[in-house]
Amino acid sequence: MTWGSRKAAEFFFLLLERPNGVTTWEAAEALWPDKDESRAASVFHTTLHRLRKVLDDELVFTRNRRYYLNGDLVLHYDVREYMELTKRAQSSLDLETFERAISLYQGAYLADFESDWCQDLRETLHGTHLSLLLDASRRAEALGARVARRGSRIYPRSTIRTVIVPGVNSRGCTTAWAIVVAPNALGRVSRPGIETIGGLRHESFVV
């Protein structure tokens, strides 16, 4: 999809994150915090026009001076699905649900965007994911799970950081969830590998 401008793409994701809509000023504060009110309003309407050219006109609508995405036309948003699965996994402690949630994490959220709202959400999701990995590892340990390694597909130029969250299982080994994070990620992460590593008797994570 060709967005027409980076800000049009960012505005789309802002609307996804704000199901209760945004006013012109709220969008301007998020997207152009350094511009004065009149200039930001002008740029906002230009960006809105570009976004509507890319998307169906009915997808972005206005009501009571607020702008919304039409929820009836947004069929899937992976961040929302990830957060729902994470909540379900941490409530049910079901390992399959943990794995489903973990597999949805595709690296840093909107990594190429530097607006404060993007950075805040990126950090929140990263922290949530570390907690999810640790909870999954502890659950595997509690169940005495011994899971064979599931090999990750590592593509050329893909590796910049590995996150390992170990937990000692009943055999004195460590069950570790390892995630290899891809660069330039709106992000791609290899499917998480689960491996047993001998000799470690602690619970921690290394980033």
Describe this structure in words.
- This protein is an alpha+beta fold and 207 residues long.
- It folds into two domains: 6-69, Arc Repressor Mutant, subunit A; 78-197, no CATH class.
- It contains six helices and five strands.
- The chain has helices at 6-17, 24-31, 37-54, 78-92, 95-104, 116-142; strands at residues 60-63, 66-69, 161-168, 174-181, 193-197.
- The strands form two sheets. Strands 3-4-5 form a three-stranded antiparallel beta sheet, covered by helices on one side. It has a two-stranded antiparallel ribbon with strand order 1-2.
- A hairpin with a 2-residue loop joins strand 1 and strand 2 (66-69).
- Helix 1 (6-17) crosses helix 3, helix 4 runs antiparallel to helix 5 and helix 5 (95-104) runs antiparallel to helix 6.
- The longest helix has 27 residues, at 116-142.
- The chain is elongated, with a radius of gyration of 20 Å.
- The model is unreliable at 145-207 (pLDDT under 50).
How is this structure best summarized?
The chain has 207 residues and is of the alpha+beta class. The chain has helices at residues 6-17, 24-31, 37-54, 78-92, 95-104, 116-142; strands at 60-63, 66-69, 161-168, 174-181, 193-197.
Task: Give the key terms.
207 residues, alpha+beta, Arc Repressor Mutant, subunit A, two-stranded antiparallel ribbon, 14% strand, disordered C terminus
Mean pLDDT equals: 74
Number of strands: 5
SSE string: HHHEEHHHEEE
Distance between the termini: 33 Å
Number of helices: 6
Tell me the strand order in the biggest sheet: 3-4-5
Q: From the alpha carbons, calculate the radius of gyration and give it in angstroms.
A: 20 Å
Which blocks of ≥5 consecutive residues have pLDDT under 50?
145-207
